Amino acid sequence: MDGLLFYEKSKEANLAQPVLVDTDPGIDDAMAILLALRSPELEVRALTTVHGNADVLQTARNARQILELAERSDIPVAMGAAQPLVRPFAGVVDYVHGANGLGNVSLPAPKMPLVNMPAACFIVEQVMAAPGELTILTLGPLTNLALALHLKPEIAHLVRGVVLMGGAAFCEGNVSPVAEANIYHDPEAARMVFEAPWPLTMVGLDVTKKVVMDKPYLAELQQAGNRFTQFIASIIPCYIAYHNARYQLDGFHVHDPSAVAYLIRPELFRTQEYYVQVETQGSCQGYTVVDRLGLYGQKPNVKVCVDVDAEGVLTLYKQRLTC
Ligand code: BDR
Ligand code: CA
Questions:
Q1: Looking at the annotation, which residues are catalytic?
Q2: Residue located nearest, by CA, to atom 2 of ligand 1
Q3: Mutate-to-test residue for ligand 1 from 49, 100, 137, 182, highest number of ligand atoms within 8 A of CB
Q4: Which pLDDT band, with edges at 50, 70 and 90, does 7 fall under?
Q5: How far apart are CA 137 and CA 21, in angstroms?
Q6: Residue 235's pLDDT is what?
Q7: What is the CB < 6 Å shell around ligand 1?
Q8: What is the atom index within ligand 1 of the atom nearest the CA of 29?
Q9: I need a surface site. Which of 194, 250, 255, 261 has the fewest CB within 10 A?
Q10: Beta carbons within 8 Å of 197's beta carbon, 6+ residues apart
Q11: What is the mean pLDDT of residues 102-128?
Q12: Mean of the per-residue pLDDT values of the chain
């Protein structure tokens, strides 16, 4: 079925899954948000923003600029935590995402206002307004979600699920030998989120590093020549330069968009349920410890993505951004 027909049918049958996206845009966050907005399987109800790839004022600005680029200023944006729960903000990751988080590309100043409440309160409000319906997708450090849980622990029973881009189950980390950035940057928040009794899916480096957009793929994407693919082409050079220097890769790992792909096409991923605990201290800060053999005697608390049909994710991305 082609994309447009599926879109019409999904709308008719009201099949779209409502999603709140908590994000720290970020080059790959921007690419992920665009994929979500262009996918009829998802209804993006709101964005909430957090410190991470840039400071929270900048990520709140970037989120609104991305929505305005997509002519979706009807989607509310609430700004969230400026720093992790118990640590200072680690600083802008300018060598990965550029000084402004969007590859140093300037977009027009956003016109849409922010929601007049902090992200954590807004998350609680959104969950309570649609009990059992909302999926929360997180693409940055988990501070906002931990604060929302602290405000209203009941939300853990009232969401449809939480899908997070973060963690490294059986592979090395990307900010330390063991830790992935989103978990590393607020490990106390991550631990709270992993311990809460909601259905949690981890889309971590085990799968996101298998999905690589290389130069020929990116050239084909750019050839579509629409405002989305042009925007993507403009923001990615510094992301490629980082991956080139660190991994000798002529392209980049597809982190946040893979988490959106999981929501749209979960059958592209192989998952396994495990008990996972987050280490908060010392040289293993941010390590997602997976108890593969059940040695802690705890029930599984996370559905971990362990493998992916990388070609399937890349095809999906191209299809949605170029149609
Ligand atoms: C994660 O860290 C950030 O740099 C990316 O936006 C992604 O969410 C990957 O480890
Ligand atoms: Ca991110």
A1: 24, 255
A2: 181
A3: 182
A4: very low
A5: 5
A6: 98
A7: 26, 28-29, 53, 96, 139-140, 165, 174, 180-182, 255-256
A8: 6
A9: 250
A10: 156, 157
A11: 98
A12: 96
Judge contact between 304 and 169, C-beta under 8 A. Answer: yes
Mean pLDDT, rounded, for 296-317: 98
Q: What is the pLDDT of residue 14?
A: 61
> How do strand 17-23 and strand 135-138 relate by DSSP bridges?
parallel
Check: CB of residue 302 under 8 Å from CB of residue 201: yes
Under 8 Å between Cβ of 262 and 167: no
Q: Which residue has the tokens 């070609």?
A: 311
Write the CB contacts of 56 (distance below 8 Å, at least 6 apart in sequence). Answer: 49, 50, 79, 80, 81, 82, 89
Ordered DSSP codes for 294-308: -TT-----EEEEEEE
Domain extent, residue 130, equals 3-322
Q: What are phi and psi of 266, to 5 degrees?
A: -60, -25
pLDDT at site 23: 99
Q: From the CA of 256, how far away is ligand 2's center (Å)?
A: 6
Report CA(140)–ligand 1 centroid distance (Å): 6
What's the CATH code of the domain at 318?
3.90.245.10
